[in-house]
Amino acid sequence: MTAVHPLAIIAANDRHGTELVRRVAADHALAFADREALVERLLAMSNQLPAGPRVLDLVGMTGHDKLLTFHGRPLDTRIGRVRASARGLVDQGVIARLDVVAVRLVGCMSAVGEPARRTIAQLAEILDVEVTGTTELVTVDDFDAAGFGSPPPRSWNAGTCLDLDALATGPLLEGARALTVAQAREVLACIRRDAGVALPGLLALPQAVLGLPRGAHFHHLELLLDAELVRAGSTVFPIDDPRALRVLLAH
Question: For the chain, how big is the Rg over CA atoms in Å?
């Protein structure tokens, strides 16, 4: 059976990009800082890599609608520039010269939800190869020298409790939303506060930062994955009713 070689494309300037580059061996990874030069670098790399079929892993942070992002730009095929970039990989010979047989979008739950699935389907049509995503949370610990492995299912049944007294306090962070005491109480009621899991290096972008008042200062919580999770430090907690939380914060 012919071996399939993995190749991870890592946005080096994204959060955790440096750690990912350190973990994955050089012959299994291409770190880039300039999107415009990516095609040229891939073509050059095709002359150096061993021949054989290859899986291309696009590794990034998951943002709104669980869409993968590179340097803060969503990989969303509703955007013409994204479709044009994908066609460029075909038209300029990257897919053929690297012998790409499949593409994986590697980030937290990057195959969950209609926008993410639509992007996967449209990329598959443009690239004419199988395109898949992930249905689990992904951290930098799910990578080794060979690249991306299979992340384990995360259990929320037991774990660290969200103890506000144990959280740091300080001035409201730039860009954070200050909640009233009543709003903070409602937000906390949506969180499964006894089901925290430590997930440092999570490949998910904070979509909002909430400031919970504590005297003249604030505790801070990050909203992740369309308000399905909150993060305090490196510990992540599930939300019982994400839609209710989104409605609450819309007012």
Answer: 20
Tell me the CB-side half-sphere exposure of residue 48, using CA atoms within 13 A. 11
- Rounded CA gap, 141 and 234, in Å? 13
Side chain identity at residue 241, one-letter code: D
Q: Tell me how far apart the alpha carbons of residues 83 and 56 are, in angstroms, rounded to a whole number.
A: 17
Q: Residue 60: which of 25, 19, 11, 126 has the closest Cα?
A: 11
pTM: 0.91
Closest CA to 107 of 120, 94, 89, 88: 120
Q: pLDDT tens digits, residue range 44-94?
A: 888 888 888 999 999 999 999 999 998 778 999 999 999 998 999 999 999
- Distance, in Å, from the CA atom of 98 to the CA atom of 152, rounded to the nearest integer, reads 29
Rounded CA separation 209/222 (Å):
5
Distances (CA, A) of 147 to 5, 7, 21, 51, 140: 10, 7, 10, 18, 10
Q: Which of 58, 7, 4 is nearest to 29 (CA)?
A: 7
Segment holding 69, helix H or strand E: strand 68-70
The C-alpha atoms of residue 123 and residue 58 are separated, in whole angstroms, by 12
Residue whose entry in the numeric block shows the structure tokens 């992540």: 236
Q: For residue 148, give both structure tokens.
A: 């991306």
In 3D space, the residue among 170, 56, 81, 77 whose CA is nearest the CA of residue 120 turns out to be: 77
Write down the residue that tokens 């490949």 correspond to.
203
Task: Using the structure block, give the residue that is written with the tokens 């699935």.
Answer: 117
Provide the residue count of the chain: 251
Cβ within 8 Å of residue 166, ≥6 positions away: none
